[in-house]
Amino acid sequence: MKKKVIIFITLILAITLGWATRPTTAHAADDSLVRVQKKGTLVMGTSPDYPPYEFQATVHGKSKIVGMDVAVGEKIAKGLGVKLKVKSMSFDSLLVALQTGKVDMVISGMNPTPARKKNVDFTHLYYQGGYSIVVNKSEKGLYHDKDSFKGKTIGAQTGSTMYNESKKQTTDTKVKGMTSVSDLILALQSHKIAGVAMEKPSAQAYVANNKQLAMIPSHFDLSASDTSAAVAFKKGSTALVAAANKSVDQIRKQDLVNQDYLPAAGKYLKTNTVNTSMWHYWKAFLTGIEYTLIITVCSVFFGFILGVILSLARMLHGGVVKTLIRWLATAYVEFIRGTPMMVQVMFVYFGLGLIVNLPALTSGIIAISLNSGAYVAEYIRGGINSVDDGQTEAARSLGMTSGATMRFVILPQALKNIWPSLGNEFITLIKDSSIVSIIGVSELIFQSNIVRSDTYRGVAPIAVIMVLYFIMTFTASRILNHFERSMQHD
User: Fold this and answer.
1) For the residues 439-465, what does the mean pLDDT come to?
2) Which residue intervals define the domain ABC transmembrane type-1 in the entry (predicted)?
3) CB 208: neighbour CB atoms within 10 A?
4) What is the spatial order of strands in the sheet that 174-178 belongs to?
5) What is the pLDDT of residue 353?
6) Torsion-angle region of residue 101: left (phi > 0), alpha (psi -120 to 50) or beta?
């Protein structure tokens, strides 16, 4: 029997590996342009924490992604005769989203490096920039360029050209990567790092809107690297790239970036800093609370159902089929508990995106539910095992079936025993829901990053969400304790 199980699992792994490693060559017939025009929208992926390229601004009371890159995207969409839809996510997830079909193009100040060109197609260049280093104004006299940071730590956005060049062209300097530029600025102001390497327009934007910061030249040797920006499309999208190039060529010919797009972005930057109080952004925090609670409640509900199924499956005995089900349930629980939730979230969103295009919120709920189910299964299994065997014997002696015994006798008592553990799982999920911000779900962490990008204030938004998380977890804890006391009185 064990041999059959091993053969079965080997077959499944072989099929999975064959699917995962299948070649990703383009179809003979390129229908990329037709598909975009048929659906009527062009989905643009970006990381809105890089002003003036892309950032969040409050427009007519609503948060909106703006910047020169968004203007480039609107120009391309107009040229294709479709509407632009902007999707926000972390910078290092953009190309994965492009390859898995979550977005149609990526515009995020991205350099068309040789390594990236192997995996995606780029348009002609729409902007040529340079690099600078942002430091604390009080320490400006200590640093002059990249060679001044020996023995210090310099930061750069993970996955960016500046991150790679900082590692290559600095000596005795530690390079720290973060997915968000606003996180890097916060690390700079809290003296966790000594400087932040970024593109010159973005450096100018941060310095102009934060009097505590200053900018110094980087003096990086950029002869061997590309400091320009281009639009990325999925590999093999020849027709779509050719159509987009028509708009990009017009942008370069008319110098629209310098003449129109950058000045417009500057106006939004000034608007953002008119009112930087946290109360001004109460709608953003309220939206974050709403999504956090939706994710938590849905994940607890589905996670509990999955946990019951898994726990019962793990307690099956006898027969090949039951043994196989028990083995699969055990393998699932061990695998889920042995892998990080962040990886699971990214796999559901990007990995399953190759099969079905799930929205970010749905993907987040599914991933967290699957994760929670594995832990709940162990809580329930422990609770069932804690019920005295005499309860089962008494129920069976009364003529109850095994299913009825489990449903009406064992599970209610087990639930009472594991209620504190289930309550702890609920509290944990409120906090763990923050992980889905990496795929662009607008929960509290995501909204706090928006506020930080809007206001250039690093600590205040974090303090606000800390208080909000405490209020939610404390309230939930009190409610759960009330039900626990009611159970004790039964």
Assistant:
1) 81
2) 289-477
3) 17
4) 174-178, 153-157, 195-199, 131-136, 213-217
5) 67
6) left
End-to-end CA distance of the chain: 47
- Residue 374 token pair: 């594995």
SS3 166: helix
250 phi/psi in degrees, rounded to 5: -65, -40
Distance CA(166)–CA(16), nearest Å, equals: 38
Q: What's the confidence (pLDDT) of residue 200?
A: 85
Domains of the chain, CATH where assigned: 2-128+228-274 (3.40.190.10), 131-217 (3.40.190.10), 280-488 (1.10.3720.10)
Provide the pLDDT confidence category of residue 8 given band limits of 50, 70 and 90: very low
What are the strands, taking DSSP E only, across 60-150? Answer: 62-66, 83-88, 105-106, 120-128, 131-136
| Higher-pLDDT residue of 147, 352 | 147
| DSSP, residue by residue, 297-339 | HHHHHHHHHHHHHHHHHHT--SSHHHHHHHHHHHHHHHHHHTS
The mean of the pLDDT values for the chain is: 85
Alpha carbon 246 to its chain's center: 32
Q: Among all chains, which residue has been given the structure tokens 């626990």?
A: 484
State how far the Cα of 60 lies from the Cα of 293, in Å rounded to an integer: 27
In this prediction the pTM is 0.71
